[in-house]
Write a structure and sequence with these properties.
By secondary structure, this protein is an alpha/beta fold. It has a single domain, classed as 3-Layer(aba) Sandwich (Rossmann fold), CATH 3.40.50.2300. The protein contains five helices and five strands, in the order βαβαβαβαβα.
């Protein structure tokens, strides 16, 4: 596993490789490093050694639901800002009922500028 290249960095969790590449290219051009996890277990493994400044989390992935990642954060007592990304708006109300600490939600297809606007706010970037 590589170390982040910038002081503040994002963990982007999504099983769609093309989406990850697009997000990575966009944020790299903005000077923000992005590390990817293509599954919840992979994300959990990253968090055993590195703590991101922000997480973007796709909910529906084949191996394990994104909700399990949120449970992992709670169990570990980690207070990392998380934005949830989903193609299924009904997922949002389900998560709100579970009272997870979530910064906000994006529905697919996501607009990269919107991700960046929220990133700037959370990471206190200009």
């Amino acid at each position: 596993m590589r170390e982040p290249k910038t002081p503040k960095w994002i963990l982007y969790i999504d099983d769609e490789v093309a989406q990850c590449r697009m997000v990575g290219d966009f944020f790299t051009q903005k000077g923000i490093d992005v590390m990817f996890a293509f599954s919840v277990p992979m994300a959990n493994q990253i968090l055993e050694t590195l703590i991101p400044d922000l997480v973007f989390l796709d909910l529906r992935m084949p191996e394990m639901h994104g909700r399990e990642f949120l449970h992992f954060l709670q169990k570990k007592g980690m207070e990392i800002p998380v934005f949830v990304i989903t193609g299924y708006p009904e997922d949002i109300s389900e998560l709100e009922e579970e009272a997870f600490e979530i910064q906000g939600f994006f529905t697919k297809p996501v607009k990269l500028e919107e991700l960046f606007d929220q990133t700037k706010k959370i990471l206190n970037l200009k």
